[in-house]
Design brief:
By secondary structure, the chain is of the alpha/beta class. It has two domains: 102 residues, Aspartate Aminotransferase, domain 1, CATH 3.90.1150.10; 205 residues, Aspartate Aminotransferase, domain 2, CATH 3.40.640. Helix content is 36%, strand content 17%. It is built from ten helices and 13 strands. The strands form three sheets. Strands 2-8-7-6-5-3-4 form a seven-stranded mixed beta sheet, with helices on both faces. Strands 9-10-13-12 form a four-stranded antiparallel beta sheet, covered by helices on one side. Helix 4 links the parallel strand 3 and strand 4. Helix 2 packs parallel to helix 7 and helix 3 packs across helix 4. The radius of gyration is 20 Å and the shape is globular. The structure holds pyridoxal-5'-phosphate (PLP). Pyridoxal-5'-phosphate binds next to helix 3.
Length: 325
């Protein structure tokens, strides 16, 4: 067994070049001073990166904290956060810790957005995860637009959008009720610095800032995030390689008789069509030092989620799978 397990269970990104991290670690830091209150330097860099204004960004300690602030600020104290299920289960925790209720709205059997929209009457904020974790599918943009037209506040969690051919950025100028959340944890390969952000109309961002703890992103993380944007070429190169690896892994898994959904993220959602159950598959791989994500929920329990790794990690996974299935 390997000394250190291979983590293909957390959707981290291990495909960035060593030189990227070397550059981010040679920063000139003012550790005696407080960081800027609302990560103004990051907001400014993001503004340039997206061609938007710096006051359209709310930066926080991970996009989890951004979502936490959105639920606290935009959902009344007896209000309801709606989200589609299956999705990122942490939404429930974040809503509940703010004493907000949750309505889980089932996705269709093919994991697309439901045709009915009657749930809108029962919720205050709707979260759409696209590409969706764990199904790896991007949600239909026209459908998202039709929900925005209903004037409910819509949060599109785009934690994995860099891996997708679709995103909701072009809708920002048209809709006051749209907030997009993104993160440095995935495509930017910086889960360790805990920096995520929201993009919206400046008025929404102002409201959110009023409710969020200032100074919540430390000097080190702010400097690393700024430098990452300045070194975005490395991220683009890793993105291209991830997409090549994603195609490779998809094809090889299909060859091993796995049913794999066409992924728009840095992970694959698949169902082994063998006698072996997903939990047993998880256990057998864990014995070999490879961790993937298995699910307990009834609707997902035949599926596993596998993060796209480096070519070496992917080959090691495929070698083990060949022996197991
Ligand atoms: C869909 C989704 N949203 C948000 C997050 C949290 O991201 P962050 O690391 O920025 O808090 C994750 C992390 O896995 C995620 O999968």
């Amino acid at each position: 067994m390997n000394q250190k397990p291979i983590h293909l269970d957390l959707n981290e990104n291990h495909l960035l070049a060593d030189e990227y991290y070397e550059r981010l670690l040679t920063l000139d830091l003012e550790l005696a001073d407080y960081p800027s209150e609302y990560s103004e330097d990051i907001c400014e860099r993001l503004g340039k990166y997206y061609g938007l204004k710096s006051d359209q960004f709310l930066v926080a300690n991970g996009s989890d904290m951004v979502l936490d602030t959105i639920f606290k600020t935009l959902v009344p104290s007896d209000g309801v956060v709606g989200y589609f299920e299956p999705s990122y289960r942490y939404y429930t925790f974040l809503a509940n810790r703010n004493e907000r209720k949750v309505l889980e709205i089932p996705l269709e059997s093919d994991f697309t957005l439901p045709a009915t929209t009657s749930y809108i009457e029962d919720i205050d904020v709707l979260v759409i995860c696209s590409p969706n974790n764990p199904t790896s599918l991007a949600m239909d943009k026209k459908h998202i637009e039709s929900l925005l037209d209903k004037e409910v506040m819509v949060v599109v969690d785009e934690a994995y959008a860099e891996y997708s051919s679709e995103n909701c950025l072009t809708l920002l100028s048209r809709y006051d009720n749209l907030i997009i959340t993104r993160t440095f944890s995935k495509a930017w390969g910086l889960a360790g610095i805990r920096v995520g952000y929201a993009i919206s109309k400046a008025r929404n961002i102002m409201l959110l800032r009023e409710d969020m703890m200032s100074y919540n992103v430390n000097v080190l993380s702010q400097a690393v995030a700024v430098s990452a944007i300045d070194n975005q070429g490395f991220v683009e190169e890793a993105l291209e390689r991830t997409i090549i690896e994603r195609e490779y892994l998809t094809e090889e898994l299909r060859y091993l008789d796995f049913n794999v959904l066409p992924s728009e993220a840095n992970f694959l959602f698949c169902r082994p069509s063998h006698d072996i159950g997903s939990l047993e598959l998880y256990e057998r791989l864990a014995e070999e030092g490879i961790l993937i994500k298995a699910f307990e929920e009834e609707r997902l329990k035949d599926h596993v989620r596998i993060t796209v790794g480096t070519r070496e990690e992917n080959e090691e996974l495929l070698d083990c799978l060949e022996d197991i299935v």
